[in-house]
Write a structure and sequence with these properties.
The chain is mainly α. The chain has 9 helices and 2 strands.
């Protein structure tokens, strides 16, 4: 196997580069706390398993036969093919990032009403400035993502399946479908974020309205100064009650997300440049 990898190094590098760009875009793996050498080693390990199913004589990689010869030599266009393979990995990783962004966005929605919008710190998972509630939901989602073996499903089904159905020409031939799919994914992001945040946002809105009415009725009570601790206590209580239901929602979101990835692969496969 090692002799075949050396003899067909350009083809092996295509597999490794797609795996590496996927890891660089995935949540957790894209964090700076994960050593880059570990990412490269994992990409090489993944490419070693996938390389055996790649063939220039048949399948999607037959389109590369004019640029990569059987003896391992390649033309200048190989560089652009390598970039296209990396783009496929980035698209897969980016869509997983979109799924996790829904949880961070939900935390941002109701953190403002809780009074924690000013408590933004650097989130090592999403690698952005994120409120504490956004980090909390993001961390919970990552725990469920790892606990339910979704990361294995991503590598064993999503990424491996992409090597069977997609090549770099698929992006060029279906660029319009890809753009529409990504725009649709952003609408799904805000929909999921609103579904998560709506129970808390609605409850806090009613509390704010009630405190405002009472403050108008009895200004001497100064209820606005007491509104902040009330909002905090109610928010934490609602989170405590909703956590079991959030687990079901997280798993359902991951399931729908992987279904959408399958549709993306099928849509890009339609003409595929083969």
């Amino acid at each position: 196997m090692l002799d075949q990898m050396v003899a067909h190094a350009p083809l092996f590098l295509l597999a490794v580069f797609r795996c590496f760009t996927t890891l660089m875009a995935l949540p957790l793996f894209s964090s700076r706390t994960v050593p880059r050498m570990a990412k490269i080693a994992l990409a090489l390990y993944m490419g070693w398993f996938i390389f055996s199913s790649m063939d220039l004589s048949s399948g999607v990689y037959a389109a590369y036969a004019r640029y990569i010869s059987a003896d391992g030599s390649f033309t200048l266009e190989y560089v652009f093919i390598l970039l296209g393979e990396g783009l496929i990995g980035l698209i897969i990783g980016f869509y997983i990032q979109v799924i996790f962004a829904a949880f961070s966005t939900a935390g941002q929605f109701f953190a403002f009403q809780m009074g924690l919008s000013a408590s933004e710190v650097y989130d090592s998972l999403s690698q952005v400035e994120n409120p504490l509630m956004g980090q909390f939901l993001n961390f919970m989602a990552m725990v469920f993502f790892l606990q339910e073996n979704w990361i294995q499903r991503l590598f064993l089904t999503g990424l491996k399946e992409s090597f069977v159905t997609l090549n770099a020409f698929s992006i060029l031939d279906n660029s319009q479908f890809l753009a529409l799919f990504m725009m649709k994914s952003l609408t799904i992001l805000f929909k999921d974020a609103l579904i998560i945040a709506l129970p808390i946002m609605g409850s806090l809105f009613l509390i704010n309205v009630t405190v405002g009415i009472l403050s108008k009725a009895a200004p001497q009570m100064n209820l606005l100064s007491e509104g902040f601790p009330i909002l905090m206590l109610v928010s934490y209580f609602l989170l405590f009650v909703l956590i079991p239901h959030l687990e079901e929602f997280f798993i359902g979101t991951f399931t729908d997300g992987f279904v959408q990835i399958g549709r993306l692969v099928s849509g890009l496969k339609a003409s595929g440049g083969m």
